[in-house]
From TrEMBL:
Keywords, alphabetical: Cell membrane, Membrane, Transmembrane, Transmembrane helix
Record's protein name: MFS family permease
Domain spans labelled Major facilitator superfamily (MFS) profile: 30-428
Molecular function per GO: transmembrane transporter activity
Subcellular location: Cell membrane
Region entry Disordered, spans: 1-21
Transmembrane region(s): 31-55, 67-86, 98-115, 121-139, 168-187, 193-215, 250-274, 286-305, 312-333, 339-361, 373-395, 401-422
Organism in which the protein naturally occurs: Micromonospora polyrhachis
Amino acid sequence: MDTTTSDTTTAAGTTGDTTTAAAARRNSRGLVGLLIAETISLVGSRMSLVALPWFTLATTGSATKTGLVAFAEMLPYVVACALGGPLIDRIGARRMSVVTDLGSGLALAAIPLLYRADLLAFSVLLAVVAGVGWLRGLGDTAKRVVFPKTVAASGMSLTRATSLHDGLSRLSTLLGAPLAGLLIAALDAPTVLLIDAATFVVGAVVVALLVPVVLPGPSDEERKTTDREPYLMALRTGFRFLRQDRLIRGLVVMLFVTNLADAAYNSVLAPIWAKEIIGSPTALGFFSASFAVGAVLGNIVFTTIAPKVPRFAVFTVGFLIAGAPRFVVLALVEQLWVIYLVAFIAGLSIAAVNPILGALSYERIPEHLQARVLGLTHAVSWAGIPLGSLLAGLAVQGLRLPAASLLFGLAYLVVTLLPLVSPVWRTMDRLRDSVRGVERVGEQVSEG
C-alpha cells in the first residue's frame, strides 16, 4: 500500500514537473519570439534610416526635401503613439502589432515599386511615408505593451530583459546601418527599401506564431474599467498620470530636445556630411556602425554591473558624453578616424540610458494604463523628431553644415546639463529597491 502510494505520488510529481517545464518553455518561447521579431524588424528599419534619406537626396538633390520626408514619417508616428493607446486596449496589443507590421511592410514596398514604375511624385512619396509612420507608431506602442507581459510570463527579471532588449536594438543598428551602406553602393536605395519592407512582414509572422495569444494582464476589475472608458476619457487618464509624475515628466522634456537634435543628426546632418564631404554612402553606414559597436559593448558592460551602479550618475554622465561631442566633430574635424572614435565613445556612454528609462517606465506605470501612458510618453519624447528633421534641412540650407551642426550640438549640451541643477532627477536612485523587488518576483515566477 505504501509502495503504491509512493509510486502514485512520484508519477504525479513527474507529471507536474513535466507540465511546469513545458509551460516554462512555452512562456520563454514568447519572449524569444518577440525579441527575434523586433530584431529582424529593427535591422530593416536601420537600413531604411540610411536608405530613405539617401534615396531622397539622390532623386531630389534637396536637403530641404530630405528633411520634409523625415518630417512626413515622424509626425504621423508621434500622433499615432499619442492617440493610439485606447485603440490598442480595445483591439489587443498583440493583434495590433501583427496587423500594423504587415501594413508597414506593404506601404514601404510601395515606394520602390512606384519609383520603378515612374509613378512616384514627391507628393506621393510624402503620403506613403506618412502612412508608414502612422502604422509604425501604433505597432511600436503595441510592442511596448506586449513586452512586459512576455517578460512576466517568461520569469526573467525586468531589468535584465530591458537591458537585453536594448542590446538587441543596438545590435540591429550595428548590422543594419553598414549593411545598408554596402547594399546601396552595390545595388541601389530602392532595393534596400524593399528589403526593409520584407523585414516588417517577417517580424509580423514571427510574433503571430511564437508570442502567446493569452498573456498576463491587468485584473478583471481593471480590465472592466478600461473597457468601459470612453475614448477621450481614456486619453485624459493617461495625460493625468503623466502630469502627476515629476520625474517621468522631466525625462520626457529632456528626451524631446535630445531626440530633436538626434533626428537632425541622423536624418539630415550625417547624410549630407557623407554625401557632400565624403561622397560615399559607405561612410555613413560605418559612421552609424561605430556608434552601434560602442553601444553594444556598453550594453554588455551595463547588463553586468547594473545592480551596482547609481542610476542618476550613469544616466547623466552618459548623456553628456554621448550628446554634444558628436555634433562638434562633425562640424570641425576632417579626420575620419577621429569622427568614428567619437561616435564609438558616444555609443559606449549612451548604452545604459535606454535600459534605465525602460525600467523606470515599466515600474511606475500601472499595467492597465501602460498602452495609453507609454504611448503618450513616447509621443511627447519623439515629438521633437519630425521637428528636428525639418529644422535641420532649413538650417543646412541657410547656415551650411558646420554652423548647423554646432547649433544642434549646443541645444543638446544645454538640456543634458539640466539633471545637475534640478533635485527631482536624483530620485532615480530611490527606485533601486523597486527594481530589486521586481527581479525577485521574476526569479520566483521562474522557479515556480
